[in-house]
Amino acid sequence: MTEQSKDALTYADAGVDIDAGNALVDRIKPAAAATTRPGVMAGLGGFGALFDLKAAGYDDPVLVAATDGVGTKLKIAIDTGHFDTIGVDLVAMCVNDLVCQGAEPLFFLDYFATGKLEVEAAARIVEGIAAGCKASGCALIGGETAEMPGLYAPGDFDLAGFAVGAMNRGAALPADVAEGDVLLGLASDGVHSNGYSLVRRVVARTGLDWDAPAPFANTSLGAALLAPTRLYVTSALKAIRAGGVHGLAHITGGGLTENLPRVLPDGLGAQIDLTSWPLPPVFRWLAAEGGIDQAELLKTFNAGIGMVLVVAADRAGAVTQTLEAAGEQVHRIGDVTGTSGVHYTGRLG
């Protein structure tokens, strides 16, 4: 027995600190509790999370689910140590997709994986997730923290998220999209969470450090490129409830070129006037430094438009007013046409 105890190993010896995991749960409980909404039945700590759809106001609901990550934008957060908003990105990538189906986000679960759990850094990340949930009206009701030594390099981590929403039966979008519908573009808050492999390649070409002044903003380059993805949920839901919205497209990877056709029926397309909104400075800088042409910019990035609403022509004015009252910058960027594909006129500028 003595001989065995001399060579005994523990989980901590293997690099997994259960006490640190428990400390993280205790730290994030207040942030998660602040996201509570009607329907939540229990807090963190159970083997599963419970949610009551009737308490949330649904008698005949259809559930909608979405999952996503943040991509290589994480690498900038890791390199700079700026962790406070990357969780907002995670939430936005999921809930902005849900609302495109006409659904109200109800709850969210996150997955955080790292080689060695640093409680302070992890807590800042999860607190950002909670902030994104609260701003979107959904509850952070669970998650998983995985400490996996040997799988991740020191300081590295990965994030994934899973959101569930609901809508009344028969309210799914897109619906009734027709030729002549108006396309309303909502301004983005920068690059959001797509195209960062190209962003990082451009930055490497310039030779700039993350703490160097951003050539296109009054902050450091790292901070400017970590501006979080805009949360469109509350404003989009107000527009849907106002009536006349036939579809929504979240402009993520693939840009306008790839995402807008996802909400258009076969045989219909879109005509977009590229002069109808200003190209944000970050994209002008990326295009200039990376030699990125207009077609590539429109297919890789949001180019300044983070969400597009397809709206009945006779409701476009009222929906615009609703969106602007909710804090959105709205641009009438084009129309639905009878010709398939996305067709551009003018030039970004």
Task: Write up this protein.
The chain is of the alpha+beta class and 349 residues long. 34% of the residues lie in helices and 22% in strands. It has twelve helices and ten strands. The strands form two sheets. A six-stranded mixed sheet has the order 6-8-5-9-7-10. Helix 5 links the parallel strand 2 (104-114) and strand 3 (139-147). The longest helix is centred in the middle third of the chain and has 18 residues, at 119-136. It starts with a helix and ends with a strand. The mean pLDDT is 94.
* Widest sheet, order of strands: 6-8-5-9-7-10
Our estimate of the beta-strand percent is: 15-25%
Distance between the termini: 76 Å
Element order: H for helix, E for strand: HHEHHEHEEEHHHEHEHHEHEE
Structural Rg: 22 Å
Helix/sheet category: alpha+beta
Show unreliable segments: none
Mean pLDDT: 94
Helix content estimate: 25-40%
Major sheet size, sense and barrel closure = 6 strands, mixed
Helical stretch count? Answer: 12
Name the overall outline: globular
Number of strands: 10
Which SSEs are present, and which pair or pack?
Blueprint: H1 2-6, H2 18-33, E1 61-69, H3 73-80, H4 86-100, E2 104-114, H5 119-136, E3 139-147, E4 157-168, E5 182-187, H6 196-206, H7 221-225, H8 233-242, E6 245-250, H9 255-259, E7 269-273, H10 281-290, H11 294-300, E8 305-311, H12 316-325, E9 330-337, E10 341-345
